[in-house]
Amino acid sequence: MIIQASGQLRHHFWGTYAASIGIKFHNADLAGRALPQFPGWKQSTVDPRCLTFHGQDPALADTLQLLGKLGADLRKVSSLARSIDFGEPFTVAVDLTQPDTTVQIGLFQ
Questions:
Q1: Can you give the pTM of this predicted structure?
Q2: Please, what's the b/e burial string for 74-104 (b: 16 or more CB within 10 A of its CB; e: otherwise)?
């Protein structure tokens, strides 16, 4: 099953550049199921439908590469066209048909 999720990046220009990115899914279950595909991300405690990332290079570069592989228009993700604080909204397509390896790993513990 491939699901669509929407996201937006926030630029942090104070000191060393960093960025925060949030991706919102239709519900918390889908966000939780997608989380293993987003290394270094967390499921939000404020809105569990969202996965969040905060960081700088090299982790940020890796995250942008991942978003590109998931179909995000990278020109929009880090764009300054609409705001100095936020990139343009973008979408990703996440494939949830992969097996849940956390269940399989639990068999060997």
A1: 0.84
A2: eebbbbeeeeeeebbebebebeeeeeeeeee
